[in-house]
Amino acid sequence: MDFALFSHIPWPEGRTPKGLYADLIEQAMAGEELGYAAIWLAEHHFTRYGLGASSLVLAGNIAARTARIRLGTAVLIPPLHNPVRLAEDTATLDVISDGRLDVGFGRGAAASEYVNFGVAHAESQARYRETIEMVESLWTTPNYTFQGQYYSVEGLNLAPTPLQQPHPPVYVAATRSVESLDFVANSGRRLIIGVVLDTADAIDLLQRYLELAKQAGNPAVAADVPVFRYCYVAETEEAAHRDAREALNWTLDVNTWRREFKVGSEVYQSLDEYRSRRTEFPPSYEYLATNRAFIGTPDQCAAQIQALHDAGVRYFGCNFAFGGLDNGKQLKSMELFAREVMPRFADAE
Predict the structure, then answer these.
(1) For residues 72 and 296, what is the distance between their CA atoms, to the nearest angstrom?
(2) In the chain, which residues have pLDDT < 50?
(3) 3-class DSSP string for the chain
């Protein structure tokens, strides 16, 4: 069973982007030494929810400071990128990282991201499919010519092309949309499952994907499907929940708040003021801790992961970096997980 790290690089009040990026780099370097297979970074714009506006730049920094850990995007938002530029940037990153790039794509969710890029959200499904297909073709096809609904190129030769052949592994996020799941399974691409789904729904999604891919004649395997969960491990259950509660509540509150904005964002506004007037509430901490997060002692987290393994999960992604948890606590949790949880699944099939 493989284990990986994930971060959307939350920006809580009182912290600076420079400091948070430094923490991310330290976590990635520690993750490599601790045996995590990959670190996955999210793309978000104009929000404290996540500082991954230039996630490929951050991945390039991590590539320069590491040698083995894979670099994943979970996810890039194709409609917000020119496909030629995106193909160039990902190919360059694959080369400089010595072929360590995993490319995950998804449609995103916040309307303000689309508005501020001048892209109609109603076009997101068509744009994201066209961009993904163009990027893959640009990676692999000399003298590439294409006439699409939104983009066209003629006789284009990408330079450089990716180091991995035929190209980096491609992942596509899906949640509850049957259309998105069909797209992933029928196209032979890999599924990526984020923290927004309850664990039972994540397992159901994985199983449906594997069955749909099988029906479509694609050789999908569970080992290629990262399943991400909020994760925090401490020596005692009490300490784990004490440390995680405020950070997870911040994460859910900001994620709910940012979706209110069609213009502007919450960056320079007061979270306390929002909390005092809001009428829409995210799930409670207790609900998240039971249904979407793995929080507790190493034994408790290992039992939850064993249940995932029994249900078919073979790639577990840990989001230790939620809500501005102190970096020292994140690193300690990563180390405790690597030392006391991961070895129990070293020979699991």
Answers:
(1) 26
(2) none
(3) CEEEEEECCCCCCCCCHHHHHHHHHHHHHHHHHHCCCEEEECCCCCCCCCCCCCHHHHHHHHHHHCCCCEEEEEEECHHHCCHHHHHHHHHHHHHHCCCCEEEEECCCCCHHHHHHCCCCHHHHHHHHHHHHHHHHHHHHCCCEEEECCCCEEEEECCCCCCCCCCCCCEEEECCCCHHHHHHHHHHCCEEEECCCCCHHHHHHHHHHHHHHHHHCCCCCCHHHCCEEEEEEECCCHHHHHHHHHHHHHHHHHHHHHHCCCCCCCCCCCCHHHHHHHCCCCCCCHHHHHHHCEEEECHHHHHHHHHHHHHCCCCEEEEECCCCCCCHHHHHHHHHHHHHHCHHHHCCCC
Residue 175 is predicted with a pLDDT of 84
Question: For 50-64, how does the pLDDT look when each residue is reduced to its tens digit (9 = 90+)?
Answer: 999 999 999 999 999
List the CATH number of the domain containing 135: 3.20.20.30
Longest Cα–Cα distance of the chain, Å, equals 62
The residue segments making up the domain with residue 279 are: 2-345
pLDDT value, residue 50: 97
Number of domains in the chain: 1
Residue 106: φ, ψ to 5°: -160, 165
